[in-house]
From TrEMBL:
Protein name according to UniProt: 6-carboxy-5,6,7,8-tetrahydropterin synthase
Enzyme class: lyase
GO molecular function: 6-carboxytetrahydropterin synthase activity
Pfam families for this protein: PTPS
Pathway listed: Purine metabolism; 7-cyano-7-deazaguanine biosynthesis
Family to which the UniProt record says this protein belongs: Belongs to the PTPS family. QueD subfamily.
Catalyses which reaction(s): 7,8-dihydroneopterin 3'-triphosphate + H2O = 6-carboxy-5,6,7,8-tetrahydropterin + triphosphate + acetaldehyde + 2 H(+)
EC assignment: 4.1.2.50
InterPro entries recorded: 6-PTP_synth/QueD, 6-PTP_synth/QueD_sf
């Protein structure tokens, strides 16, 4: 059986590797739909609040009104330098690859799975008309070959 839970958060990002409008710093109201595999053992499988108790605080603390940024983006070093010089702190969520919606789905899938939930898939809406559906199969493939994320290339086997 599947349980679907929906969440949202606001965050800034940029795709520094692109040569279009998305290279500029901008923000989105991200929508996240999580699809959990649960086992029915009687009338109730899982309380919806069990998901919310872990996922909502995680999104609020690590994503909401923060900035998603690739650790190799030159802007990241500039922001860190600003923090050190001024004492001002930003909510930076550092990625090891470009901050695409596909990579956001990969990151969220892993973080929510680490909370102990069995995810079948996650849908991440970057805009009202643009949605990425990311499955458990996608997550396994990306973990086998991190080069798929567009960060550092996967090491070659000898």
């Amino acid at each position: 059986m599947l349980i679907q839970k929906d969440y949202k958060f606001y965050a800034a990002h940029r795709n520094e590797e692109l040569c279009d409008k998305c290279r500029n710093l901008h923000g989105h109201r991200y929508g996240v739909s999580c699809f959990f595999e649960v086992e029915r053992q009687g009338a109730l499988t899982t309380l919806f609040g069990d998901f919310d108790d872990k996922i909502e605080p995680h999104l609020k603390q690590n994503y909401d009104h923060g900035m998603l940024i690739n650790g190799s983006d030159p802007l990241y070093a500039t922001l860190r330098d600003h923090e050190q010089r001024t004492g001002e702190k930003f909510r930076l969520n550092v990625f090891s690859a470009p901050t695409t919606v596909e990579n956001l789905a990969h990151k969220l899938f892993g973080e929510i799975t680490e909370m102990g939930f069995r995810m079948q898939r996650i849908e991440v809406r970057e805009t009202d008309t643009s949605v990425v559906t990311y499955t458990h199969k996608d997550w396994l493939a990306d973990n086998r070959d991190p080069g798929r994320l567009g960060g550092e290339p996967a090491p070659q086997e000898a």
